[in-house]
Amino acid sequence: MSEGKPVTILCLASYYKGTAFLLKAKELGCRVILVAKETLSDEAWPDESIDERFFMPDLTRRPDIIYAVSYLARGRQIDRIVPLDDYDVETAASLREHLRLAGIGETRVRHFRDKLAMRMQASRAGIAVPAFVPIINYDRIREFMDRVPPPWVLKPRSEAGAMGIKKIHDSEQLWRRLDQLGDEQSFFLLEQYIPGDVCHVDGIVSEKEVVFAVAHRYGAPPMNVAHEGGVFVTRTLPPKSDEAQEMFALNKRLMKALGMVRGANHTEFIRGQDGTLYFLETAARVGGANIDRAVEAATGINLWEEWARIEVAHARGERYELPPARTDYAGLLVCLAQQEWPDLAQFDDPEVVWRLRKKQHAGVIVVSEDPERIKRLLDNYTTRFVHNFLAVAPPLDKPPA
User: Fold this and answer.
1) In a 3-state reduction of DSSP, which class is residue 152?
2) pLDDT computed for residue 161 by the predictor
3) Do residues 46 and 186 share a domain?
4) Is 35 helix (H, G, I), strand (E, B) or coil?
5) CATH at residue 166
6) Is residue 267 located within the same domain as residue 340?
């Protein structure tokens, strides 16, 4: 895609991520504005790709963020607003509505942030979801607990990943927890606990069409890793396998039902013991925990870069075309580490293509043309991670301030 019509993109960042988006947007000739949380001011943002940067105490606080971005718009023609983190998705939608810009608005964005809204919409479209009930009407909650045997899962409707999720074993435990939540309880839902393998599809949507998708399976459900500790593991599934094909088809139906127009998405499914593939949750952003690096290692597709190309193409009235993708297999392992800087040099197989450089964390990515080789490496590396590095911290109910 060559440089064309001038485009100004304002990016929101409550966490340090999405630098590849900033780099690609600038490479495509965009003017890039970064509005980030002030605690991120010292992070290694790519200075050469950012024309202006502004830092605020809290990007989710309204009307402060609306006042701030509207003030910037007095002297700048802002064409697109892009959230770099899940917590910025709703803020970006609100700003688009206020400034009347293209992209997902406040009503539709709830399908990608509110776990209750996405379940209701998916269910209406005939997509299987675990049985659930909103924490609103107590009679409905009692009826649900009479009908659906425990255990259940109490989930915050708008937190990211496994944040704030509690496993509930009986009604008394639930009522005690709701008493603790007080006025916040309506921001939760109660869901049937379904054991099984959790998988995810990471993809790209352009003008309502899924143009790229890759399927992975977690080693252990992310909720288990977050609450019980362990190594976060995921690996690429053969794209022509029945399992992957079923997920691709379901993801297409889901994106249509939820109203995804353009951008990256990360969707999770679980295979229940009854054989049914259930929808768990989705997000209108690039998957976290370095999943984007695993996707790129296996396919050559950088989700952040392609998201930038899609936004710029649409702003210029051009057609987006996905570059050729490979069909290799990747495996990703990440865990909290006892050491400040774990020694990852011992993982020296030729398949190792990336090592995580982050305090108190260990992580590697392996790539091969052979999925069985990836599985063997992950089994071996997981055991060594547990023995050499693994540290366990209590789960958080909310993200750190």
Assistant:
1) strand
2) 62
3) no
4) strand
5) 3.30.1490.20
6) yes
- The arrangement of strands across the sheet holding 152-156 comes to 132-134, 188-192, 152-156, 166-168
Q: Are residues 164 and 245 part of one domain?
A: no
Domain that holds residue 182: 131-192
99 and 153 in a single domain? The answer is no
Flag whether 120 is in a domain.
no
Residue 88 lies in a domain: yes
Q: Per the domain annotation, does 398 fall within a domain?
A: no
Q: 338 and 229 in one domain?
A: yes
For 74, the token pair is: 């007095």
CATH number of the CATH domain containing 19: 3.40.50.20
pLDDT for the residue numbered 325: 96
Start-end of H helices in 331-390: 371-388
User: Is 334 in a helix, a strand, or coil?
Assistant: strand
* Nearest C-alpha neighbor of 255 from the set 89, 79, 108: 108
Domain count for the chain, please give it. Answer: 3
Rounded CA separation 308/145 (Å): 45
Asked whether residue 224 falls in the same domain as residue 367, the answer is: yes
Output the six-digit token pair for 98: 């206020």
Instruction: Name the region of 178 (left: φ>0; alpha: ψ -120 to 50; beta: rest).
Output: alpha
Q: What is the pLDDT of residue 3?
A: 59
| DSSP sequence for 88-114 | GHHHHHHHHHHHT-SS--HHHHGGGT-
CA distance 67 to 340: 41
Q: Considering the entire predicted model, what is its pTM? A: 0.93
- The half-sphere exposure of 390 on its side-chain side, counting CA atoms within 13 A, is 16
CB 215 within 8 A of CB 248: yes
Ranges in the chain, pLDDT < 70? 1-4, 160-162, 227, 396-401
Contacts of 307 (CB under 8 A, 6+ apart): 21, 82, 204, 263, 264, 286
Write out the two tokens for 225. Answer: 């890793």
Looking at residue 217, its amino acid is R
Is 285:229 a contact under the CB 8 Å cutoff? Answer: no
Note whether 209 and 139 are same-domain residues: no
Separation in Å, CA 176 to CA 64, 169, 185: 36, 12, 11
